[in-house]
Structure formats: structure tokens, C-alpha cells
What does this fold into?
Amino acid sequence: MKISSTILGKTCITSALALMLGAAHGNLAAKQIADQALSKGQFNLDLSHISLSGLSSGGYMATQFELAHSDWVSGVGIIAAGPYYCAQNSIQTALNQCVNQLNSPISLDILNSKVIQWQEAGKLPPLSNLQQHKVWLLSGTLDTRVLPQVNQALFTQYQHWVKAENIVYITDKPFAHLFPTLNSGSKCDVSEAPFIGNCDYDAAGEMLNFIYGELNQRNETQNGQLVEIDQHELGGKPAQSLADKGYLYVPKSCQEGGSCTVHVSFHGCNQNANAIGDAYATQTGLNNWADTNQMVVLYPQTKSSMMMPLNPQGCWDWWGYTGDDYANQHGEQIKAVKQIIHALAKQETQHD
It folds into this structure.
């Protein structure tokens, strides 16, 4: 059952709507717990560690969030993205080096020196935290929007930070620039909206099983609920560059008070709700695995803008349109997503 008209925030959902949300539960006690969690927008979340994923600009954002909170994140799954700080706070560099052009070689020495600089300034935690992270990377052979050399630079960068046995890099799949799935989306060899490919390949399952170890098998159909969240209310002032609403997928077990982990998945450019509705939040396959593994999935949403800060394609900030510190703990979008996660957790479960 999908609820896409509910805004979870400080204002409680009406009791009538709460009854509708709980109607699927088999007993009154479970129903009451689920109603309460959904109406308050708070859940029993284990925030000791979280995991991340992302496609394209969302992949860049996943790496940025990971480094900004490497003491909190345990693993990432990244599709079609380049190295951390590739754009170096410049849209020109982003276009000339970090997507479908490579007009000059990427200098990882320059990028990594920025990491050290920010670490020494207290804007990033110690790089040593990354050693135990699980990192799953994918670059499709038919992807013409992010060059293989750009993806390779990200892999090389991670090799400096993460133990070799904790990295998987997949480069032999005939996928275009999209999120590959078992049976959702459009043609796998064409990069077009909603940028989700029917590839007979479960990228969501591959990345989650690598990050977490062997998981329970996915549900064939999703039986949790997709709800809208008020990003501006939950994320506070830093969330102004985000859309008003985001999405949260909540499995039944999480609605009923069970302890659940958190996975955050960042969409790509031209893939936010303004462009494709809830397709990214419903079709990647992540929810099917969340259903059977006590995991909520947060799908934060950017907003497209033809005004300053200019972001016509609704990309995550990986070149500096929100400020010079976009890729560290002081970055507005990084702060907003962190605050949203904490706001969704019951007070006693929050991570400091």
C-alpha cells in the first residue's frame, strides 16, 4: 500500500488517515503502534551505523556524505560517479573533467590534498574510519554520460582509503547511465527518464548484500508504505536547497515498532520528484530488500531551479552551488540530510 499524499512533520496526521494507514495490520496493538509511528513520523531507528547509495550526482553525494560522516556510515553503493571533490568547487571543472569529457587528467593528488586540508580543519573526521567501510561500485559499459576513466578515478581513490577486500568494482555489465533493476524501468541500453533500467540485474540486492553481508531474500512485491516527508521542517534551515517533500519507505516491521536500520539513497540529475515523481523511490528494488531486512529507506529530494543557485536539472550539489563547503560536514545538503534522519528517529535512538 502506498501513501503519497502524507506529509510527516511536526503536525500530526489526522486520526482518520492514521486509521487508514494501519488498516492492513492484523491486530489492534500492532495497528496502534504503526499508526502512532506514522502519525509522528518517528521510528525505532538504529542510528549507530547507516548505509548509502546513489546514481550519478547522487553517487557523488553519497561519497561526500560518507566522508563527512565516516564515523557513522558503514557502507556505500555507487553507480556512475567520479572521485570525491572532482569538480573542485567549479562547474567548469565538473563539466570538463567529471562527467562525459576528460579535457585534462584528473589529479587525485589535488583532490586528496583537499581531503587532508578539511580533515585538519575539523570539517571531516579521520580518514582512518574508511578502512572498514564496504564500497560497491558499478560503471556500465554503455554509459556515455560518465566516462569509464572518471569512474576508475573514484575506484582508485577508494583503494587508498578502504581495505582491498572491502571494495567491489563492476565494469562488465552492458548498462547505460541508469539504476539497473530486475524488471523495472525502461530499456537497459538507453539512458532516458526515469533512468531506471529493466536489466535483469538486481543492483539494489548486490550492493546491499555486499554492504551488510547475507540478507534475507527480497519481497517480490513491496508491502511497506511510501510516505512523503516535509524536508524543510525536518531538515531545518540547511534544507532550503532541497524540495519541500522527500520520500521515506517504511516496512511493516518498522511501522510496528521494530528496530530498523537506515539506508539513504540519492537520486541522480533529472531524477527528482519534480522530474519523475516517485519512480526512483519505488522502482530501484531497494524497498523489496528493506521489507525483509528491517530497514527504512530515505529518498531525499532536490529541487530544480532556473534561479540562483542555478540547478535546472535538479542535481545534488557536487560542484559547489550551495557554498564552498558543499562536500564536508558544513555542507548545507549534508547537514540537512543528517538532520532529517535524526528527526525521523525516536529521541532515545538518535546518534550524536
In short: Confidence is low (pLDDT under 50) at residues 1-7, 10-26, 348-352. The chain has one domain: 7-349. DSSP finds 13 helices and twelve strands in the chain. The two ends are 34 Å apart (CA to CA).
